[in-house]
Each structure stands twice: as C-alpha cells, then as structure tokens.
Amino acid sequence: MAHYTIRDRDMEKREKLYTLWGEDKINEKEMGLLRQKTKDIPAPFDAAGGKDIKTLVEAFLERDDAFGLAAPQIGISKRVTVFKNKNLYDREPVTSERDYDVLVNPRITQFRGETEIMMEGCLSCPDINVEVERYTEIKVKAYNIKGQKISRRYTGFLARVVQHECDHLDGKLIIDRGSRIQYPKEKEEFFNSIFQMGS
Ligand SMILES: [Zn+2]
Predict the structure, then answer these.
(1) Would residue 62 show up in a list of annotated catalytic residues for this protein?
(2) Positive or negative, the Cα torsion across 97, 18, 117, 129?
(3) How far is residue 63's CA from residue 83's CA, in Å, rounded to a whole number?
(4) Does domain 11-194 have CATH number 3.90.45.10?
(5) pLDDT tens-digit profile of 149-182?
C-alpha cells in the first residue's frame, strides 16, 4: 500500500516495480503476474524461499513511498509481504527491524469489528486512489522472517495495510475492491478507457 502521493519517482537502482499500467498502456505481462495467486514458501524455508524473502525486504527498505510491499509487486509470485508496523506516515525509509513486520504465508483467520471506508493508493496501480472498505481488526497466522509460526492481531490503519498486502498475495488489487476510483483530470481519457466509465 502506498502513500497517496509519490514524492520520489527515481527508481533507478531499485527493484523493478510491477504495475498494471504505465503512462499510457496496460502492462499485460506484469498484470498477469500481479493477478496470479501466489505460492506458499516451503517451511522450513528452503534456499530459494529465503532468497525471495530477503529480496523483498531489501526492496522495501530502499523505498520511502510504501507502507508495505508484497512479493508479486517485484515480480515474485510467492506468499510473502513486508510492511511498516509503526510510524506509518513517517517518510523516512525504515531502518530498524523492529519497525517492520515480515509475514510469510500469511492467512487472515479472523475479520472483526467495524468496517471503514478509506481511500487507498497502491504502487502497482499508479496515479489512482480507490475507496476501499476494510475491517478495522484482523487476526493473522503466518511465519516470521526467522521461520517461526506467529499469530498477530492488527487494528486500525495497520489492519487496512495488512488486508491490502494479503490481497496482493491472492492476486487482488484495489480496483477489484473499490467502487469509487479517483484519478487525475489529465489522465481521464486513459483511465476512462481502462475502467469504461466514460462515454
Ligand atoms: Zn498495493
């Protein structure tokens, strides 16, 4: 899940980010991967799984524009995600491993409490924000980065971030979740053609 505005588009030395569309066209191949349901990483983690986890965490730590990142967003179709667990709106890159959670093979086991509607952005859906309804409390079972089984409870905005990231692992994106989609006026024609909302 992304900050609403992306401050820094200089991605030169970063892991390539998979997006549904570019400036003026759909990215068919990247869309195929983003739309795919990911595979579990074998536990205990094998070498390939460990490498994928490390690649994702490093890609996340390089960025200052993401609350979280899911493996498909860098082209890895595996069930792993990483996200900030505090100070979500700080625009400094995360450095301490206490400040982010890595969930391997996460499953949301409970949705609780109220639902809340909020605008969400996503690095894989550039230039748009979508109004998405999410639960305000969830419970998750997963493995942590060390391969230990964990249970976590997330509430409030963090619960939203985790639901967003877990959606990625099921091949779902914000455009599948929301009805109201916002995009800049100057890109109206392009997005109208994608979402078939215009005449
Ligand atoms: Zn996203």
Answers:
(1) no
(2) positive
(3) 11
(4) yes
(5) 999 999 999 999 999 999 999 999 999 998 799 9
